[in-house]
Amino acid sequence: MEKEHLQPLFTNDAVIFGILMLMLAAIFKTAASESPFWKKFYKYVPIILLSYFLPSLLNTFGLVDVESSQLYFVASRYLLPACLVLLTISVDLKEIIRLGPKSLIMFFTASFGVIIGGPLAIWIVSFMNADFVGGAGPDEVWRGMSTIAGSWIGGGANQAAMYEVFKPSDELYSMSITVDILVAEIWMTILLLGIGKSAQIDGFFKADTTSITSLKDKIEAYSKSIARIPSTTDFMLIAGVGFGVTGFSHFVADIVAPYIRDNAPYLSKFSLDSGFFWIIVVATTLGVILSFTRFRTLEGAGASKVGSLFIFILVATIGMKMDVLAIFDNPGFFLVGLIWMAIHVTLLVIVAKLIKAPYFFLAVGSKANIGGAASAPVIAAAFHPSLAPVGVLLAVLGYALGTYGAWLCGLLMQVASQ
Hints:
single chain, Na+/H+ antiporter like fold, 18 helices
């Protein structure tokens, strides 16, 4: 019996959320253990990778129905903006600017890798089996792949835009989403594993990481200088600021996005009619503004720790969407996606080696495209919580450019499939 015909064991989001939190609690408890076994285990397996992988087993084995679950929606719309505020509130904007142009170079390299990777992957696979990249009318494979390009350069809003532009069939679109999620999450897993080896990778690239280290050190020094035992009032203020700004961000998004959609539809090319785009932009902007006020001292009571908690909940809900068995549903389609991602990664490694870019810029530049605002700050914060805003700023740029890049990629894939 196929998995999709089975009744999921857990259908109540409260139950599923409880399971996810127990998983996270077990991971952090074992990671803090003095046991030689766990010390050795977490030396090779990052906490964030395990927080991502374990929830995926719930989906892989059909224990939950991710299609009906609202946990990812809640985490991405409520906890993500709140954590961006709490992680940004102590940021040193001048230090971020001093990170230099290499982060932008790696970001645009990642975008270019997606744009040329799609048509090259289709062209390569066509020599293996033309049926894998064929089809007719709405079922032409390149149409579905164009929606993946939208997701991999910007995000969900750009993906939806490509669906409207190239109009793949619903069945093809569904397969595209599966390939999009699975291949992107495999790459996410590899990136997370690489964080544990970032020093060696930076050595291979001969990268200068002094600017990144300086930013981390300054944030840590500031946090220690204002550290205090948090009171209930402190936690209420942290929650009030985080969710208050989140609520205001939704309020602005509910006004601005529909207005642009109705009165300036041409701006949809930049994803400016996406409510999620405005939620992320407003939350991040206000977080940066608050970093110049007294609210910055909330870091001493643990604002970034609460923000990190929200990030790990988000990671668990993202991981829950992954189904490692889905590759067997359409191996040809998956093969195109895998080759596509390999081209993207190869180009990133070559450019990083040429310009001596740190692994941090490679990882964040890639995920600012492939995953956008939901993944880039996760990867950045895995290096250090103070670096999360770098991921957010690049992800916002991806939203703005995603539709253009995906549209070009779609046209090139159409040519390659003929």
